[in-house]
Design goal:
alpha/beta, 2-enoyl-CoA Hydratase, Chain A, domain 1, six-stranded mixed beta sheet, three-stranded mixed beta sheet, 9 strands, globular
């Protein structure tokens, strides 16, 4: 299974479980995450979700093998990515994420939908849209400027450069930065703290925080999906993916 789900008292633990791939994200993983979130949202006994991953990487981004066949070719409205993105945007309970290593692409954009993000000093973040010939997804075109500011978001998204854990903390992308060996204990402690609070009170708080932005966020998500769907059919993605598998630098000089 691409994810593992475990109940610990009032905490639903959702863990990316493809360590042999660096927890690469594909349609199967997005569908499994969507289903796990729906189950946690509907379970009155669950008060908080604790999100994590196995292996050295939080996730190394999208599975480029799937990019070769365009996972959106049958319509973005019916895609697991779109469904999962909406579940994250609307999720009614707190999500605590623990990031132990590289969070690339969807790994970086996904945490923008989490409420508290604890990262290890081994973590790093990349928004690799330009380098892959694609565009922002998972609501990041709206949420990243909201989190770190418009100017910094433009820098990170257009340059595709690596952001260190320290820069991410200072910019507001993550909540806390801790030594690697303390990561899981700290994320667990926060989840346990939240699990001891009133679910109704936390739900009301999260709803108030979400409602201010939800209409604009959902519009941004739909615009992202339309743009991403078009780009997936374009030559830049084919060049980027081909270069990756050929172990060379992509050449975008002759593509739009």
């Amino acid at each position: 299974m691409p994810i593992a789900v475990e109940r610990r008292g009032r905490i639903a633990s959702i863990t990316f479980n493809r360590p042999e791939t660096g927890n690469l994200m594909n349609a199967t993983l997005f569908a499994a995450l969507r289903d796990a979130l729906r189950e946690a949202a509907s379970d009155d006994a669950v008060r908080v979700v604790r999100l994590g991953s196995t292996g050295d990487a939080f996730t190394r981004g999208g599975d480029l093998h799937e990019f070769m066949h365009n996972p959106l070719k049958d319509g973005w409205e019916r895609s697991a990515l779109y469904d999962c993105t909406l579940e994250l945007a609307r999720f009614p309970k707190p999500i605590v994420a623990a990031v132990q290593g590289p969070a690339i692409g969807g790994g970086s954009t996904l945490i923008l939908n989490c409420d508290i993000v604890v990262a290890s000093d081994r973590a790093g973040f990349v928004f690799p849209f330009s380098s892959l010939g694609i565009c922002p997804e998972i609501g990041s075109s709206y949420l990243l400027p909201l989190a770190v500011g418009e100017r910094r978001a433009r820098d990170w998204m257009l340059t595709s450069r690596r952001i260190s854990a320290e820069e991410a903390r200072d910019a507001g992308l993550i909540t806390e930065l801790v030594p690697h060996e303390q990561l899981n204990a700290r994320a667990d402690a926060i989840a346990e703290q939240l699990a001891g609070y009133s679910g109704a009170a936390m739900g009301a708080t999260k709803k108030l925080l979400q409602e201010v932005h939800l209409a604009a966020l959902e519009a941004a998500i739909q615009a992202e999906m339309r743009a991403l769907s078009a780009l997936m059919e374009g030559p830049a993605v084919k060049e980027a993916v081909g270069a990756f598998f050929d172990k060379r630098k992509p050449d975008f000089s002759t593509v739009a």
